[in-house]
Design a protein that fits this description.
By secondary structure, the protein is mainly α. The chain has one domain: Transferase(Phosphotransferase) domain 1 (Transferase(Phosphotransferase), domain 1), CATH 1.10.510.10. The chain has six helices and no strands. Helix 2 packs antiparallel against helix 4.
């Protein structure tokens, strides 16, 4: 394994690299704005999910979780209502904020993730 952690959940996966999808599927807390708003979506949803996972690994809860209702969680996702505890480092915040971007095409690409200062700092 070489100290690598691999996470996979293929329950809702689709291999369609050149197409846009319109179905809404997945776990509520991980849905990107384009799914919540019923817009077409592409593989860029995976970049959003990576940002949600990074946040959850550091904080212990999903970033947009709202216990009052599913509708409230949807609203927080659509507005990118993102709050960080004080103990999250500036580098981690920067990475997560660059992944949790409303416009899918503006999300940090995987190459940018791998060269981000937060990743480089801990990938030695």
């Amino acid at each position: 394994m070489n100290g690598e952690l691999k996470i996979a959940d293929f329950g809702w996966s689709v291999h369609a690299p050149n197409s846009r999808r319109t179905t809404m599927c997945g776990t509520l807390d991980y849905l990107p704005p384009e799914m919540v708003e019923g817009r077409d979506h592409s593989k860029d949803v995976d970049l959003w999910s990576l940002g949600v996972l990074c946040y959850e690994f550091l904080v212990g809860v999903p970033p947009f979780e709202d216990h009052t209702s599913h509708k409230a969680t949807y609203r927080r996702i659509a507005k990118i209502d993102l709050k960080f505890p004080d103990y999250v480092s500036p580098e981690a915040k920067d990475l997560i904020k660059k992944l949790l971007v409303k416009e899918p095409e503006k999300r940090l690409r995987l190459s940018g993730v791998m060269s981000h200062e937060f990743i480089i700092k801990y990938n030695s």
